[in-house]
């Protein structure tokens, strides 16, 4: 079972911290590759699209404090 991302990492990623964003992308890299498979091959265009969407979503997410 994989480790969960820490709350602090998620908060920093939502604030645009490059290291935290990289940590989130690294954490979900396997899942992204799995979702980007088409006919048993990784579709790099789809993979890049998913990564772009994840980054955009991270930066739009706001925590109520």
TrEMBL record:
> What's the superkingdom here?
Bacteria
Q: Which InterPro entries match?
A: HTH_dom_conjug_TS-like (IPR024760)
The name of this protein is Helix-turn-helix domain-containing protein
| Domain annotation Helix-turn-helix conjugative transposon-like: ranges | 7-62
């Amino acid at each position: 079972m994989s480790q969960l991302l820490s709350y602090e990492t998620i908060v920093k990623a939502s604030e645009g911290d490059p290291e935290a964003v990289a940590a989130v992308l690294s954490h979900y890299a396997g899942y992204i590759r799995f979702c980007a498979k088409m006919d048993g091959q990784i579709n790099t265009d789809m993979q890049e699209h998913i990564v772009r969407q994840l980054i955009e979503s991270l930066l739009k997410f706001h925590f109520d404090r």
